[in-house]
């Protein structure tokens, strides 16, 4: 198997699913550093392809998947990183942060080739290629490839499985013990949401704390009480939340997974429209007549869990 690599700037993608990207990995009718010229039509349109771990490390699990497309000038992969895996997330963040230093490479077999002269040089023309994987790398032989766009990660942090506890929960106290000045990996072990515009190394960027934090600031088990309380806030309890509506499902997924890890069923996520529609008195004056049934139900969810844990 041969490989070729390319480089160019990065652009944050404004639309699409979380973790999606587009990377140009081959340009046509250009002599690359191997002395090859890849011709239009060399790639199979729509071919599914693996996104390999950094540097063609086949011994590691893939970090994403994609689909190959091409026009008369270049070939690219429309792909998506597996943000629910550690390797996929790390690769996504590295590609995003490297920006215009990022290079892409692809591993392939040559199905059809020929030799001839191009721009006064003897070259090998690549006419048909079978691509096995596309991989982000440091350096390579290609000319003109780049990460065209990449979709920024949603603010809801990916769910994960950890130990759980039914011990008493004091959110403000645990938050006070969490350290500031740490990296994103640290805060992912404590919170379920981050402000995408905030500094990743600042504690105030994060919300929905639900993990126990030790006296020295070390993250501990997920609190079942804290997770249920967080879902209650998503549903309008205790003043509700100001995070974007589009992030609520991701935060719920994160908290619900911990609750299920504790062999309990999480409270359902209420629709925003239901909470807002029943939060005001329908008399025409727009004044609130008290908490909506959804908000009351969210408070009851929290209280019922606390009673259940006390009885156990």
Order of helices and strands: EEEEEEEHEEEEHHEEEEHHHH
Number of domains: 2
Beta content: 25-35%
Oligomer: single chain
Tally of DSSP β-strands: 15
On the 0 to 100 scale, the average pLDDT is: 80
Low-confidence segments, ≥5 residues, pLDDT <50?
Answer: 8-12, 140-149, 278-298, 306-311
Summary of the model, kept short:
The protein has helices at 86-98, 171-177, 184-188, 224-234, 248-261, 272-277, 293-311, and strands at residues 2-7, 12-13, 20-27, 36-38, 48-51, 64-70, 74-81, 103-118, 121-137, 146-151, 164-165, 193-194, 206-207, 211-213, 219-223. The protein is an alpha/beta fold. It starts with a strand and ends with a helix.
Secondary structure blueprint with pairings:
Layout: E1 2-7, E2 12-13, E3 20-27, E4 36-38, E5 48-51, E6 64-70, E7 74-81, H1 86-98, E8 103-118, E9 121-137, E10 146-151, E11 164-165, H2 171-177, H3 184-188, E12 193-194, E13 206-207, E14 211-213, E15 219-223, H4 224-234, H5 248-261, H6 272-277, H7 293-311
Parallel strand pairs: 2-10, 4-9, 5-9, 11-15
Antiparallel strand pairs: 1-8, 3-7, 3-10, 5-6, 6-7, 8-9, 12-13, 14-15
Helix pairs in contact: 4-5, 4-7
Spell out the key features of this protein.
alpha/beta; elongated; disordered C terminus; about 300 residues; about 25% helix; 15 strands
Description:
The protein has helices spanning 86-98, 171-177, 184-188, 224-234, 248-261, 272-277, 293-311, and strands at residues 2-7, 12-13, 20-27, 36-38, 48-51, 64-70, 74-81, 103-118, 121-137, 146-151, 164-165, 193-194, 206-207, 211-213, 219-223. The protein is α/β, with parallel strands linked by helices and 312 residues long. The protein folds into 2 domains: 2-151, no CATH class; 164-311, no CATH class. Strands 1, 2, 3, 4, 5, 6, 7, 8, 9 and 10 form a 10-stranded mixed sheet that branches. The chain has a 3-stranded mixed sheet with strand order 11-15-14. A hairpin with a 3-residue loop joins strand 6 (64-70) and strand 7 (74-81). Helix 4 runs antiparallel to helix 5 (248-261). The N and C termini lie far apart (60 Å).
């Amino acid at each position: 198997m041969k490989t070729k690599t390319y480089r160019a700037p990065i652009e944050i993608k404004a639309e699409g699913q979380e973790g999606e990207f587009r990377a140009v990995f081959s340009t046509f009718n250009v002599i690359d550093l191997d002395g090859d010229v890849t011709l239009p039509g060399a790639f199979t349109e729509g071919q599914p392809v693996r996104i390999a771990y950094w540097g063609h490390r086949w011994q590691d699990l893939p970090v994403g998947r994609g689909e190959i497309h091409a026009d008369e000038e270049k070939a690219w992969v429309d792909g998506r990183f597996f943000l629910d895996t550690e390797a996929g997330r790390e690769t996504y963040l590295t590609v995003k942060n490297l920006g215009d230093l990022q290079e892409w490479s692809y591993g392939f077999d040559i199905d059809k080739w020929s030799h001839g002269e191009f721009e006064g040089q003897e070259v090998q023309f690549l006419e048909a290629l079978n691509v096995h994987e596309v991989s982000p790398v440091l350096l390579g032989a290609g000319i003109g490839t780049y990460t065209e766009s990449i979709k920024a990660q949603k603010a809801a942090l990916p769910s994960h499985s950890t130990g759980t506890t039914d011990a008493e929960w004091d959110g403000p106290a645990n938050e006070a013990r969490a350290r500031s000045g740490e990296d994103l990996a640290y805060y992912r072990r404590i919170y379920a949401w981050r402000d995408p515009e905030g500094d990743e190394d600042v504690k105030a960027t994060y919300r929905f704390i639900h993990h126990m934090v030790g006296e020295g600031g070390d993250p501990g088990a997920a609190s079942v009480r804290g997770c249920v309380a967080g879902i209650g806030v998503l549903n309008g309890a205790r003043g509700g939340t100001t995070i974007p509506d589009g992030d609520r499902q991701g935060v719920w997924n994160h908290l619900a997974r911990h609750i299920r890890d504790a062999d309990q069923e999480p409270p359902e996520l209420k629709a925003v429209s239901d909470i807002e529609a029943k939060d005001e008195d329908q008399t025409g004056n727009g004044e609130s007549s008290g908490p909506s049934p959804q908000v009351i139900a969210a408070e009851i969810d929290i209280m019922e869990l606390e009673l259940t844990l006390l009885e156990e």
